[in-house]
Structures are given as structure tokens and as C-alpha cells.
Design brief:
Number of domains: 1
Distance between the termini: 19 Å
CATH topology: Rossmann fold
CATH architecture: 3-Layer(aba) Sandwich
Strand content: 15-25%
Largest sheet: 7 strands, mixed
Number of helices: 8
Helix content: 25-40%
CATH superfamily: Class I glutamine amidotransferase (GATase) domain
Order of helices and strands: HEHEEEEEHHEHEEEEHHH
């Protein structure tokens, strides 16, 4: 992991239990841009948002292509963007969620251009679930280890990334999370990098993050259930793979 220039919000040592409010207010804001798009999976966005919002000096923008109307997620939940692409000059943290709408996003020129523009300044480029495929379509994961939802993980290779079957994968300044619920894990990992382990643990305590899985074993070890899920999603996964192939073909040959 490269060592970025020091900033008031990046603490290499454990932070004190009680932050000084005046100092926090005077600190350079930690500018976090979280992409929102139609038919995204809201938990991909809202889980990490809850963690990021508790970081010292965090200033979060929920950014959509347009903020004329609320963004409706894949299940019909409306989310109001705070800014549009042309209103954002840059950020320290770039975050992309996933969801069915990722399919169209991978071929949306203005969105891919926006992500590339943000990546120039961003100290951390991050995603959850199939948001990594969108980063890949923008050419931002070429030559990087990365993860995604388990159903879509192999598609990362079509975009020049090295697929890794782990819940959170960190390669230099790329932080990627696996499917949906892993967003909180990703956000806490990034919080540790930015604000130190003590601060990240305080956030985990505040949101009572203490996973207790409803099922004692990994359901992905159940061949019957895996086959059923694959069958139910096969048609859409075929579309995802086709989109990833097209996006990969558009990427320049050099890293």
C-alpha cells in the first residue's frame, strides 16, 4: 500500500477516544463520492455510507448522473442524490456500488468518464459487489487484484483484473468488496486505513457490527442451493458476461 501525503483525516496512530470537535471542524474534509444509479442494490450503498459517515471530517456526496429526480434502486427504494457529475471536481474516496443497473452503467460513456476523472485525484478507489465491474469497464482495475459478487467474479478477468475470491481485497489503493453485505466489511477496512484501527473499532461498536450468520455453514458449500441460484440468475449473468466482454474489448491494450 503506497503512503499517501499526510492529511488531517489520515491518522497513522490510534486516535484518542474523544475527538476534539474544533480540530475536526478545522480539518481538511475527507471528500467521499458515492455513486448512485438506477436499479442499484441499496445495501451496497447504504451499508458503507453508515460507516463512512462516522469518520472524522467526512463529507459525503451521493452523486448521480442527474439529480433532477430521486434514484430508484432495484427494489423501488428512492435515494436522493446530493450532486450530479458536473458538480463534483474531485474526491479522496471514490465508491461504486453494484446491482442490476450496473449492466447499463458499464456502457454509459458519461459515467465511465466521470469515474476516470475522479480516479485521477482519488486516494482510494473502492467498490462493493458488481460495482467492481463498473470500475473495470472504466479501466480502473486493469492489473489489480479485485473481488466481486461470487456469481460475477470470473467476469473481472475480462476487464484485465485478477479475480480473488475473498470478502475484501486490497491491492494498492484499490479496495473491493464481494457481494452486497460485504460493504460494511469493506468500509471498516477502509476506515482502519484512513483513521486507524481504534477509530474503526469504535465505529463497529457504535453500529453494533457483530455478525451472527443465520446459517451455521456457508451455503455456497451446498451444491443444490448453488445450482438453484445459478439457474435463477443464468439469463442475467449471460448479459453481464456479454457486457464485460464488450467493455474489455474497448479497453486499451496497455495497463
Amino acid at each position: 500500500m503506497p503512503k499517501w501525503p499526510s492529511a488531517p483525516w489520515r491518522s497513522p496512530t490510534p486516535s484518542p477516544p474523544v475527538a476534539d470537535a474544533a480540530a475536526a471542524a478545522a480539518a481538511e474534509p475527507l471528500r467521499i463520492v458515492m455513486l448512485a444509479f438506477a436499479r442499484m442494490t441499496q445495501l451496497d450503498l447504504t451499508g458503507p455510507f453508515e460507516v463512512f459517515a462516522r469518520l472524522p471530517a467526512a463529507k459525503i456526496e451521493i452523486v448521480a448522473k442527474s439529480r433532477r429526480n430521486p434514484v430508484e434502486d432495484a427494489a423501488g427504494l428512492s435515494i436522493v442524490a446530493t450532486a450530479s457529475y458536473n458538480e463534483i471536481a474531485g474526491c479522496h474516496v471514490l465508491f461504486v456500488p453494484g446491482g442490476p443497473g450496473q449492466l447499463e452503467l458499464m456502457e454509459d460513456g458519461p459515467t465511465l468518464d466521470f469515474l476516470r476523472r475522479m480516479a485521477v485525484e482519488a486516494r482510494y478507489i473502492t467498490s462493493v459487489c458488481t460495482g467492481s465491474l463498473v470500475l473495470g469497464a472504466a479501466g480502473l482495475l486493469k492489473g489489480y487484484r479485485a473481488t466481486s459478487h461470487w456469481l460475477s467474479l470470473p467476469q473481472l478477468a475480462l476487464l484485465g483484473a485478477e479475480p480473488v475470491e475473498e470478502r475484501v481485497v486490497v491491492d494498492r489503493n484499490r479496495f473491493t468488496g464481494a457481494g452486497v453485505s460485504s460493504g460494511i466489511d469493506l468500509a471498516l477496512r477502509l476506515a482502519t486505513e484512513i483513521a486507524g484501527e481504534d477509530e474503526a473499532r469504535r465505529i463497529a461498536l457504535a453500529i453494533e457490527y457483530q455478525p451472527a450468520p443465520a446459517f451455521p455453514s456457508r451455503d455456497r458449500e451446498d451444491a443444490r442451493l448453488v445450482a438453484e441460484v445459478r439457474a435463477r440468475t443464468a439469463a442475467f449473468q449471460d448479459k453481464r458476461e456479454a457486457a464485460a466482454r464488450r467493455a474489455g474489448a474497448r479497453l486499451p491494450s496497455e495497463p
